[in-house]
Amino acid sequence: MSGATDGTHPRLQENHFVLEFPSLPANVAFSRYAVAAFASQLDQFTLVDIEDIRIAVSELVSNVVIHAYPDGPGPVRVEGRLREGCLEITVSDQGRGIANVEQALEPTFTTLPGERMGLGLTFARQLMDEMTVTSVPGEGTVVHLVKRPSAAPVQPPAVSS
Ligand SMILES: Nc1ncnc2c1ncn2[C@@H]1O[C@H](COP(=O)(O)OP(=O)(O)OP(=O)(O)O)[C@@H](O)[C@H]1O
Ligand SMILES: [Mg+2]
Fold first, then answer.
1. From residue 48, how far is each of 52, 85, 122, 127, 147 by CA, in Å?
2. Is 160 part of any domain?
3. Tens-of-pLDDT digits for all 161 residues of the chain?
4. Fewer beta carbons below 10 Å: N end or C end of the chain?
5. Nearest protein CA to atom 29 of ligand 1, as residue
6. In CATH, what number is assigned to the domain containing residue 35?
7. Which domain holds residue 17?
């Protein structure tokens, strides 16, 4: 029998993945499922934490699908890393970039008024512990996220002899 079923498996130390796919709408759901499954390896994440991660990844990959490549699908890269008890995610593209990142981060700012609400980056920032957006017009955008488990670490029960 595997140790994973009796609680004796070693504590997860570190893991990572890289996904690359075209910026097609179908890949928004694909990437959020993939990242949620990866994040679930960290036992300390609550269901609410995993939901937060799913929403944030959805918003960022949607942004690439909608905004990054006006002339047709281009590459999206999603990287994840579990280390030191937290999850780091990077969503990057080589698309048109963001002219003014500070403005893009303002709630309700959108370059597609009437079509979009301008809330995706705001939600992602609220749901994660850290978010940094780096963008170069004409070269692309990189969004880095960090999520820490919201629950206190579970202490193993004391064993009395
Ligand atoms: N990967 C990206 N490439 C190019 N521009 C982007 C990218 N991500 C965001 N943006 C720009 O930043 C703006 C704000 O993004 P945000 O996700 O907050 O709102 P939105 O996508 O316009 O609307 P919503 O997310 O509510 O549908 C976008 O309107 C777009 O101009
Ligand atoms: Mg958006």
1. 6, 17, 18, 10, 12
2. no
3. 444 455 555 566 799 999 999 999 999 999 999 999 999 999 999 999 999 999 999 999 999 999 999 999 999 999 999 999 999 999 999 999 999 999 999 999 999 999 999 999 999 999 999 999 999 999 999 999 999 999 755 566 777 66
4. C
5. 110
6. 3.30.565.10
7. 13-147
Which residues are CB-neighbours of 74 under 8 A, at least 6 positions away?
22, 23, 68, 93, 94, 95
Is residue 126 situated within a structural domain? yes
What CA dihedral angle connects 78, 14, 150 and 160, to 10 degrees? 160
- Biggest CA–CA distance in the chain, Å, is 69
Number of domains in the chain: 1
- Predicted TM-score (pTM) above 0.85: yes
Ligand 1 site residues (CB inside 6 A) read 59, 63-64, 66-68, 93, 95-96, 98, 104, 109-112, 116-122, 141
Cβ atoms of 128 and 145 closer than 8 Å: yes
